[in-house]
Amino acid sequence: MNLPPLLALRGITKSFPGVLANDHVNLEIYRSDVHALLGENGAGKSTLMKILYGFYRADSGEILLNGQPIQIRSPHDARQFRIGMVFQDFIQIPAFSVAENIALFLPNLPAILDKARLIKRIEEISERYCLQVDPTAPVWQLSVGERQKVEVLKLLLADAQTLIFDEPTRSLAPHEVEGLFRVFDNLRRDGYAVVFITHKLKEVLACADRITVMRRGQVAGTLSGSAATESGLISLMFGTEAIESAPNRSETQGEGRYPILELKQVSTQGEGEAIGLQEINLTILPGEIVGVAGVSGNGQRELGDVVLGLERCSRGTKSLWGQAATHWSIAQVRASGVAFIPEDPLGMAAFPWLTVQENMALGDTRRYSRRGGLSMDWENVRQDLERSLNRLGFEIPPLDMPIGTLSGGNIQRMVLAREMAHNPKLIVAFYPTRGLDVRSAGAARELLMASRNRGAGVLLISEDLGELFSLSDRLVVLFRGRIVSTGTPQETTMNEVGYLMTGSRKEPGVNG
């Protein structure tokens, strides 16, 4: 490029206890450019962008704006330099309107807000950048895609010129992803710099002008979007030409046996903003993966919680292995052979201050306790964890390290390894590959398919429609707590499912 970079990061180094997250990283960000940041888990992508946004401070290195060194010590400093970031978890007040949430983010907010003027500005910018959303609507009523638009509007109205997106397509349906890329196009047109972190190579190739690949805290390479290929990017990410292969699917004999799981007319009582389930009928046979598609907040969590015993049925019945299990405790469900891969591994399945090894033991304390619980067989714990990690193809971290110091993707790896260590009969998997790089995600999918091939059942809840279509034997779509479609992946398309997920419209060929 002939133009100088808008922002330049030079020699950025950042370490945490036991982890060198960024190792003398150089990165240039240009105006009118969509810049994708790729890398395997723990490669340092999010850390680098959080340094640019002031969430972390670098141990060494410098940041230049238009060629001049600047100091960014906090997000407030970053916003002063017109840098904004859209995080995976939105910072919004659900009871407030779109306009009120945006107003709270604006600098120099007046004592008396001219609401009509603000709404007019929101409507103007919404129209220009394909960010249409009702400024007067309460945020709790919005879809995930609309809530993301609110975050972008916040930054634009606050006069940001560099916009950083952390996994922006994570919870979006296909047509919403296409809409987001149109937003990127419009931002590029008007001279904004866009940086987005993602693990989805096809999306990078579809919209990025420049791609930087990080590996083990360093930049492995930067190349133009036009020169990039999927195999070349994977080679940079892992230092190998290995491409994710299709999962190995074998025929199973589920028919004629008791269902592993059977829900009949199950409903739950929604609380607050949570959506209750409505008359759910669902079975999982031995050797079957049943995929669940839906935009976050439409009953997926409640469905998994009912299976695990975390939530009670207000109506209907649940059976496991042909036994009435409607009133089983969580401990009974788990002891019967049900594994749980949660959507929030650190918050729901791990204790951050305990070591990796201690977290492994907590998954099944009865297996490892000795002398009536007075001691633990740590050697057996270590062997089981290392065996499971090797099966998944995951690198083995220091087992005496607090699990909370690992990256989000590596925490997901540890939880996967723990839950799959003892060949469960039913796996309830919430977003099992969320945050995992291509190679790790491929290993996790292979393990789910191997479990299915040996006769286990899998309830797979995922926001990745490609994953659902490639793994599922049957696919159901949840919308507002109801199953609105049931069938095989061969009977529908991703776009049809996407429209059903968002309640936009029902296209021909989709089963109801």
Give the helices and strands, then pairings.
Elements: E1 7-16, E2 19-29, E3 33-39, H1 45-52, E4 60-65, E5 68-70, H2 75-80, E6 83-86, H3 98-105, H4 115-128, H5 144-157, E7 162-166, H6 174-189, E8 193-197, H7 201-207, E9 210-215, E10 218-224, H8 230-238, E11 261-267, E12 280-284, E13 288-293, H9 300-308, E14 315-320, E15 323-324, H10 330-335, E16 338-341, H11 345-349, H12 356-362, H13 365-368, E17 369-370, E18 375-376, H14 378-392, H15 408-419, E19 426-430, H16 438-453, E20 457-461, H17 465-471, E21 474-479, E22 482-487, H18 494-502
Parallel strand pairs: 3-8, 3-9, 6-7, 7-8, 13-20, 13-21, 16-19, 19-20
Antiparallel strand pairs: 1-2, 1-4, 4-5, 9-10, 11-12, 11-14, 14-15, 17-18, 21-22
Based on secondary structure, the structural category is alpha/beta
Summarize the biggest pleated sheet: 6 strands, mixed
N-C termini distance: 52 Å
Count of separate structural domains? 3
* Strand residues, percent: 15-25%
Radius of gyration: 24 Å
Number of helices: 18
Give me the CATH superfamily of the largest domain: P-loop containing nucleotide triphosphate hydrolases
* Secondary structure tally: strands: 22
Strand order of the largest sheet: 6-7-8-3-9-10
The best one-word shape is: globular
